[in-house]
Amino acid sequence: MRLITRNDASLATALVVAAVILFRQPLRLLFEAAHDFEARYQVDLIPALILLIVVLVFHEYQKHARAAADARAAAAEAAQARTRSEELEELMMFSQEMANALDPPSLQQVLWKHLPRFAPRRTFWVLTRKGDRWDALLQDAAETRTLHQLERLAVDAVSADAGRAHADLAMADDFRLPLVAAGVPVGVLGVSATPALSVGERKALGAAAALVAVSVRNMQVFNETRELSLRDGLTGCFNRAHALETMDTELRRSRRSGRPVSILMCDIDHFKTVNDQLGHLKGDELLQTVGTLLMRILRSTDVRCRYGGDEFLVILPDTPVTGAEHVAECVRKEVAGLQLSSGETTLGVTASIGVATANPGDRSANALLERADTALYQAKREGRNRIRTATQPSAPFAIVRST
Fold first, then answer.
1. Which long-range contacts (CB under 8 A, 24 or more apart) does 229-235 make?
2. What global pTM score does this model have?
3. Does the structure show a pLDDT above 90 at 90?
4. C or N terminus of the chain, fewer CB within 10 Å?
5. Which residues of 61-84 are buried (b: 16+ CB within 10 A; e: fewer)?
6. Rounded CA gap, 340 and 273, in Å?
7. pLDDT greater than 70 at residue 402
8. Could you tell me how far CA 301 lies from the centroid of its own chain?
């Protein structure tokens, strides 16, 4: 254990002075003996001893200074190692949670949790890109710029000149990091650059951005794959399984909120004739055309499905029977305007449509589908190219429009 440390300079000075006073007489005798020795043998003993003592003291001082510098360097290295370890641990936790975020709400939750740790007390935003479309995945509450303004910044960050101007991005109001996965830009991460970011903070944000890019791309691929599995490859409409699942969901929501939900069951009239006279390729072309027509007519909240063969099911959330009848009439008129030609043969196209609105007592999709299907075949029996609306169970059908 050291009795005297670097903080005890006054004590050390006092000890040296006390030692000189205590051994003053012996020291005087020692100096006299040294002078006698110098006189007798004609040597400069005292100057040599003084030089030796000075060199020894200077050598010890250098050793102490080097030891102190080594200690400071070791402490700094240990602090850097701790910082790197903490950053690595944070990145590992970030990566693990990001790997399980396969939808926007989950990804947003993870980003809100971790991004402030990489950019404390700074505003930040994340835009995702798919094709030419930009969407705001995350935007700090303190961020006052509009989506259009942020989109312009994001476009600059991923443009061809962004690589050459990357050094300037750090000097702007935002430090913008393109999110690139497999060489494809999938978004941009923006962080407030005031006050200026340190080199360590930029490196940490760069590593975080790489993880965000991979997660965004994973989310996009997952959603694309899921959507493809739910859609009919020919018409682009959802398949029957998704239609039934959506109907059950909408019926539960309708019971909770009291909001209406209606459906249309559409069938192309004499579709077998199209296949027989013009061929199955023309039949497929007609189905594709009808699928595109439905997408153009319907709202983004409406769900278009290919129920089977030449039958299409349309789910209309928050739509009463009068609104459903209006949509059905629009669809009927649009389909009636189509024509198919092959060689010298030209066929007109019409559709019959059954309309049904959910009753408070409907607990599953089957009852609603059965009423719409019955209304559809009522339209077929009455001459096709018309719509019929199903009333309450056990009541007759009400003729709404006919041609």
1. 232/291, 232/305, 232/306, 234/284, 234/287, 234/288, 234/291, 234/306, 235/287, 235/288, 235/290, 235/291, 235/306, 235/312
2. 0.54
3. no
4. N
5. eeeeeeeeeeeeeeeeeeeeeeee
6. 12
7. no
8. 23
Strand partners, 379: none
Q: State the burial class of residue 233 (Cβ atoms within 10 Å of its Cβ: 0-12, 13-18, 19+).
A: exposed
First to last CA, the chain: 107
Structure tokens at 83: 């910082």
State CA 165 to chain mean position distance.
25
pLDDT at 8: 67
In the block, residue with structure tokens 């940490």: 204
Count of alpha carbons within 13 angstroms of residue 291, beta-carbon side: 21
User: Under a CB-based contact definition with an 8 Å cutoff, are residues 389 and 400 in contact?
Assistant: yes
The answer to whether 260 touches 320, Cβ cutoff 8 Å, is yes
**Which among 261, 393, 394 has a CA at the least distance from the CA of 324?**
261
Residue partners of 258: CB distance under 8 A and separation at least 6 = none
pLDDT, tens digit (0-9, with 9 covering 90-100), for 276-334: 899 999 999 999 999 999 999 999 889 999 998 999 999 999 999 999 999 999 999 99
Query: Cis ω on the peptide bond leading into residue 120 (within 30° of 0)?
Result: no
Contact 402, 343 (CB under 8 A): no
Whole-angstrom distance, CA of residue 295 vs CA of residue 129: 23
As a dihedral over the C-alpha atoms of residue 340, residue 341, residue 345, residue 347, rounded to 10 degrees, the angle is 10
Q: Which helix (H) or strand (E) holds 357?
A: strand 351-357
228-281, pLDDT tens digit by residue? 788 888 999 999 988 999 999 999 988 888 899 999 999 999 999 999 899 999
Find tokens 């360097």 and name the residue.
73
When mean pLDDT is compared over 47-51, 342-346, 381-385, the highest value belongs to 381-385
* Separation of alpha carbons 293 and 334, rounded Å: 8
DSSP notation for 197-243 = PPHHHHHHHHHHHHHHHHHHHHHHHHHHHHHHHHB-TTT--B-HHHH
The CA distance from 38 to 50, in Å, is 14
